Amino acid sequence: MQGTPDLDEPVIVNDKQSWGKLISMNGSKVNSQELFDEEITIGRLDTNKIIISESRLSGLHCKIKWDSTNNIAQLLDLSTNGTFIGDQKIGKNNEIILKNGDEIFLLHKSKVPITDIIGFTLVIQQQKQIKMEPQLDEQQQKKIQMIEDFQYDIHCPICDDLIYQCVSLMPCLHNFCGACFSDWMAKQKTCPSCRNDVQSVNKNPMVNNVVEKYLQMHPEKKRPPEEYKEMDQKNKIKGDALTFNSTDQISTVTIPSITNDAPNRGRGRPTNTITQQVSIIQQLNQKEINKQSNISDYSAEEDDGPVTKDCVTCIRPINGYQCQRRSVPHLNCNNCSSKMPKFDLNEKRLVFRCDLCENFFCSLYNKNCLQLSKKNPNVRLERHQVPKNVDVQIFRQNQFEFQAFLDFMKLKNLTTQDIFQYMLDNHISKGGFKYLESKRTHNDPKRTIDMIILKDTPICQQCFTLIWQQIVFRYRISIRDQMIDKIKNRGQCWFGINCKTMVHNPGHAEKLDHICEQTKF
């Protein structure tokens, strides 16, 4: 089964004795890893011990060191976007001592959807008790935050690293690495950020100058030389600009070179400082954000023509849906970013908004939106396709409970679709299923939700991933009496599914039942 190599994959014999294990939090992204060497590098490049093919990770993301003499593990952060221990960002070139049970995030849960998380729980076989001192003082944390804020203006949204050979798209003015957009351009001629059509692609020497000066101050932020060489080869934008015509043909345009050096006036100094350049980028980005966030409203003074040229249903009806002119505001589809009317949610037959995240989608009538995500991003709960396999993340990395559930499914010859249908028939359709996000079900929840989910509740694909985890969790609670004696006759842990001890203490995981909500706070 994908995501559980320690259970389903053959054991690789190694002469060295494993000193620890990294248990994956997301089996669909990366497998669990046994730790043998005293120095283990993790990143995107093939030269690493643990290779993770994810464009948002650095080539060499971090390094784990094992001191066998003192039984101490340390982690050195080498990434641009950060490695996290729990919710604490370590910061590039900072080192921290690891503890048994630490959660190590390469893509943190607060920065990506739960389906994109890349993280591990560290299990150390033996570790001496050492006094842990604060690793980063307040001044260091402020410095890290300043660097984060600055990097946001000069980072590429595709590779999530500092921009290299910057190109700007017209008319939206979004910036990307030349190599990154070249890969994107081979598939489609829209902006990766806003999905608007691209009329031309221009080189942006101003941003290149900003990045160059920034790297002079922070040389540790540079990519590996082999990564720059690879990006040089991928960059297909050789001229000063590319233009797209109506037939999708690309033409190269050479424009006069741009200089950012202001002329000397008297004895004054040039004004091409890094602060001014970054300010210009921030102003352009803010204008674009303001432009996209505006919701256009109908007014009585408007004529009978289209209310907004960006909304196709303002011009003609599509599949029976058309704007009600002079009365309905517009907003952006959360999937394809196209303008769409804000339909009346009292009309129950319409499935335009996810009831959980409250984002709107135009996929019900817009085929382009469907093609973008390969499937309908927002449908009624009962129409969603469930995963073929059960992920260990549903049991919060509790391997004992996970294996017990797999054994039950095998004994009863059950599939995930069988579980889904059982919950639809016996709980969800009768109003007996609630989706919860609270201290009872989550460690440090970012929001509080107590919501009844019915089979016809509109749910987007991203939110269904969260709901599916609780569907399996509630199903496991409902069939507790059908489990074998050593499983069903255990007492319940006070901390339930939120228990941290169950991850690194197999004896505790086996002794107490953790498939329950937390009752002690």
TrEMBL record:
Annotated ranges, domain RING-type: 156-195
All residue ranges annotated as the FHA domain in the record: 40-90
Cellular component terms per the entry's GO annotation: nucleus
Gene Ontology biological process: protein ubiquitination; ubiquitin-dependent protein catabolic process
Superkingdom of the source species: Eukaryota
Compartment annotation: Nucleus
Xref: Pfam families: FHA, zf-C3HC4_2, zf-CRD
The UniProt record lists the keyword Zinc: yes
SMART domains: FHA (SM00240), RING (SM00184)
Keywords: Cell cycle, Metal-binding, Nucleus, Transferase, Ubl conjugation pathway, Zinc, Zinc-finger
GO terms of molecular function: ubiquitin-protein transferase activity; zinc ion binding
PANTHER family per UniProt: E3 UBIQUITIN-PROTEIN LIGASE CHFR, UBIQUITIN LIGASE PROTEIN CHFR
Protein name according to UniProt: Checkpoint with forkhead and RING finger domains protein
Organism annotation: Paramecium sonneborni
